């Protein structure tokens, strides 16, 4: 039977019974040279999380161009990997507060259209859509900004105002 080595890509012949035995022992078929190197380079490496040793073939990882695993399973890797917490730092928050204050009317409320215009005056590169779906969603994401809907006639688009709490 003609086979192709899973590591070096070389073509070699093998009896069918040898092929079956090879498949039972290894995840892929290797030529005699690679099989010898594969077996010779087996090394036990301890998991960084649980310390459990697992045997790996350094030759296999070298031929595949990969580094040897540091964890024995996905469970250990997930336990060791730090979970990323969302950053609470919002450098654009100051621009939002300045725009609301600059657009403030005598009643203490700022129309959202005016707030958007003030954004462009304060920082021409600022875009609310970089941080939220629209300006209202951006303002709603801030805990100390209050938004209200201004009453208008039926069938007319609503006006919204914002103020700092």
Beta-strand residue fraction? 15-25%
- Within the CATH hierarchy, at the fold level, what is the topology of the largest domain? Nucleotidyltransferase, domain 5
User: How far apart lie the N and C ends?
Assistant: 80 Å
Query: What is the H-and-E element order?
Result: EEHHEEHHHEHHEE
SS class? alpha+beta
Overall CATH class of the largest domain? Alpha Beta
Strand order of the largest sheet: 5-7-6
Helix content: 25-40%
What is the average of the pLDDT values? 80
Q: In total, how many domains does the architecture comprise? A: 3
The low-confidence runs, each spanning 5 or more residues with pLDDT under 50, are none
Count of helix runs: 7
> Superfamily at the CATH H level of the largest domain?
LOTUS domain-like
Q: Please tally the β strands and state the result.
A: 7
For the biggest sheet, the summary is: 3 strands, antiparallel
Radius of gyration: 32 Å
CATH architecture descriptor of the largest domain: 2-Layer Sandwich
- Tertiary shape: rod-shaped
């Amino acid at each position: 039977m003609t086979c192709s080595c899973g590591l070096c890509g070389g073509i070699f012949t093998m009896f069918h019974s040898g092929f079956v035995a090879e498949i039972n022992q290894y995840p892929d078929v290797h030529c005699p040279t690679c099989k010898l190197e594969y077996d010779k380079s087996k090394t036990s490496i301890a998991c960084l999380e649980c310390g459990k040793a697992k045997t790996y073939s350094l030759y296999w990882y070298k031929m595949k161009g990969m580094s040897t695993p540091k964890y024995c399973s996905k469970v250990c890797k997930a336990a060791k990997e730090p979970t990323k917490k969302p950053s609470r730092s919002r450098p654009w928050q100051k621009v939002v507060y300045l725009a609301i204050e600059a657009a403030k009317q005598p009643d203490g409320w700022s129309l959202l259209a005016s707030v958007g215009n003030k954004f462009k005056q304060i920082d021409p590169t600022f875009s609310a859509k970089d941080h939220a779906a629209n300006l209202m969603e951006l303002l709603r994401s801030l805990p100390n900004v209050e938004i209200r809907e201004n009453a208008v006639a039926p069938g007319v688009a609503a006006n919204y105002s914002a103020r700092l709490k």
